[in-house]
Design brief:
This protein is an alpha/beta fold. It has helices at residues 30-40, 61-74, 85-88, 95-114, 136-143, 146-151, 164-171, 184-190, 194-201, 229-238, 255-274; strands spanning 7-10, 44-48, 80-82, 119-124, 155-160, 178-183, 205-210, 212-213, 219-220, 244-247. Helices cover 42% and strands 16% of the residues.
């Protein structure tokens, strides 16, 4: 039993806050984050896509070359693309919206492949939440992308706030190119049982966001909320989890010191698990 994953960090966590938001694309500092990530010990950065798309390097040939240059220079991978754009512009059951959303997903697939990313994260939380809504149309939407995903060796991970059994049923109605992004903190905040979640769809989890949150409350420092990060990672270890571990923790007074502390916290847990302690 072990976790063979290396530790990555969400883009923007190594840059000053933008408009006081906890998460945003760091337009002025994204290149510098590769160097900082390397110095701390991270192996990857999860790339953020949000408005305005035209300013994101992922959406231009020149920008893609700049990204590839940083990847090579610092040996920091981008395995995951976090499409926060779909929280700003949710996928709706309207013909024109579905057409635009599918076009954007296909563009993301093509761009992701050019920087050797393998996963695209689509969040259905907050403004784009699926709870108490009819989301049957999404099964057809995502299944229609199976050929695009297969041809590009790509997987889409969904993050939702659906109750565990409902998310399981949703996932297993989708093709095998659709997986789950599991957010430890968000699950704790919603009061969900992580044992049930991992039993229900653990085999379809292809990325884990590491954070701590208070029940029905905010993101806070690791170890101070209701998320049992150590136990969740232990259960993943029993499943020989080998995919992404991305730190998406609370912001602190000093971004670099905070990231170092969160990295050390997580690395310590992994070392103990992998040493059999």
């Amino acid at each position: 039993m072990s976790i063979t994953s290396e530790i990555g960090i969400m883009q923007g966590r190594l840059s000053p806050k933008i408009n006081n938001k906890i998460q945003a694309f760091p337009l002025e500092n994204w290149q510098n984050e590769f160097r900082l990530a390397k110095e701390i010990g991270f192996s990857s950065i999860e790339w953020i896509v949000e408005k305005p798309l035209n300013l994101n390097p992922l959406f231009s040939s020149e920008g893609l070359e700049q990204i590839k240059k940083q990847i090579k220079l610092y040996d920091i991978k981008i395995d995951y693309i976090c499409a926060d754009i779909f929280m700003q512009n949710p996928i709706l059951n309207k013909e024109e919206n579905l057409k635009k959303s599918k076009h954007l997903v296909r563009h993301l697939i093509t761009s992701a492949r050019k920087i050797e990313a393998k996963f695209i994260e689509i969040p259905f939380v907050d403004k784009s939440s699926l709870r108490f809504k009819n989301y049957d149309f999404l099964i057809q939407f995502f299944n229609s992308l199976e050929k695009d995903l297969t041809n590009n060796d790509m997987i889409i991970n969904l993050e939702t706030d659906l109750i565990p059994i409902e998310f399981k049923n949703f996932l297993y109605g989708l093709n095998n190119r659709i997986g789950a992004n599991y957010d430890i903190g968000n699950s704790a905040s919603l009061g969900y049982n992580f044992i049930d979640e991992l039993n229900y769809y653990g085999s379809r989890i292809y990325n884990v966001h590491i954070k701590d949150r208070i029940l029905n409350g905010a993101t806070i420092d690791f170890g101070e909320g209701n998320a049992n990060i150590s136990k969740v990672l232990s259960l993943l270890s029993e499943q020989n989890y080998s995919k992404g571990l991305i730190i998406q923790g609370a912001r602190g007074l000093n971004d670099i010191d905070t990231a170092k502390s969160q990295f050390d916290f997580t690395k310590n847990i992994l070392n103990k698990l992998n040493d059999g302690k």
